[in-house]
Give the backbone structure.
Amino acid sequence: MMTEKRKSMHGQWSSRWAFILAATGSAVGLGNIWRFPYITGENGGGAFLCIYVLCVLLVGIPIMMAEVMLGRRGRQTPINTMRTLAREEGRSEWWQCIGWIGIAAGFLVLTFYSVVAGWTLAYVGRAASGFFNNTTAEDTRVIFTQLISNPKSLLIWHTIFMALTMMVVSHGVTAGLERTVRFLMPTLFIILIVLVGYAMTTEKFVDGLVYLFTPDFTKISATGVFIALGQAFFSLSLGMGAIMIYGAYLPQKTSIASTSCIIAFIDTFIAILAGIAIFPIVFTYALEPSEGSGLIFKTLPIAFGQMPFGQLIGTLFFLLLVFAALTSAISLLEPTVTWLIESHGMSRIMATLSSGMFAWLIGIGCLLSLNVWAGSTLFGLTFFDIIEGFTTNVLLPLGGLLIAIFASWLMSHKSTTEELALGNSTLFSTWKITLQYIAPIFVVLIFLNAIGLLKFGS
């Protein structure tokens, strides 16, 4: 079956920009707004940023192009896409495991992602009500500890967030996913610009820029390089089925190469904007940029409680986190929903309800492991730790590695050139060589480092 005759039964993006907004929404999540600033702070600022951008170019963009290409060529859920493409290329049907890995990874990420996203929902209300006014470091620590130690509260926020996610996904490609990201992504960007505008008025705005953009490579370590590599890979939502299923809805005449570059640019740009918004506030209020994961939930509320218009700025900031989390969550649920529709004949509403409720149920286990089940561990890991570690350290890099191998080594030259529409250009040769050699080596190193088989001093 020729790819131009194959159409997705789930619909198609109305335009190239609809796909860009959706894919960028999938990529832009808590990893950009929450994780990127604090790991940049932990790893030396400007030097880390330089390495991160290099990793996006060498690993992120080539694998994203490959994943979009596979999705558009197959026009089905990741499992059925890989089964179909393996047959067409004369390869073993075992390669459909790429689809299984992607769907499993995205689904499992959603189970704990929804719990963390629930924290951001809770903090929107706290910021809006003036809860952080004149708080101290001890106050914010207690506020966060009280939140995660209260299973009933966590359950409420987890349930609300999953309900929002399911509501969007149940409406399909154009009425649900596209309409939502057309509103959320511009709104997210506007809120971020407002926060950057506020940061420009702070006393230490220039200090924040110097910290973020002045590289000092004596502050970077081998561990920092691997962290940058992992962040670049995971920030773009690679290996979890989301980009592949979104690619299945991409119009045939749309350039995969230029679109992937635009998505990677916007994703990186938003992460940098988050740093520009956050670091001046951190320095102005004598906070520590290397505070770690507590930077958002334990440290910034202190600044929000002291700054002019802090109640408004804090509310906008946590609303930004909610929007970023929601655009990613809908892309995590979509591959499972489409698989249930294609393989089991379910309606979209039933597929969304069944998969969403199951993710919600597993999420309850994740939130209980933060409090009631905190003492129940396996090899020192809680249920939350196990789910999070297995997905991010095993499934995602494994899926990315297999995508790179299949797209660059096992697909025919005719298939790849036909889908990418780059001919035999230098750009095509660069993409293929990068995907064949550089990206797989880097992904293997991420994997080995993550599971502890590679250890480097700091």
About this structure: The chain has one domain: 3-450. The chain has 18 helices and no strands. Residues 310-344 form the longest helix (35 residues). The two ends are 52 Å apart (CA to CA).
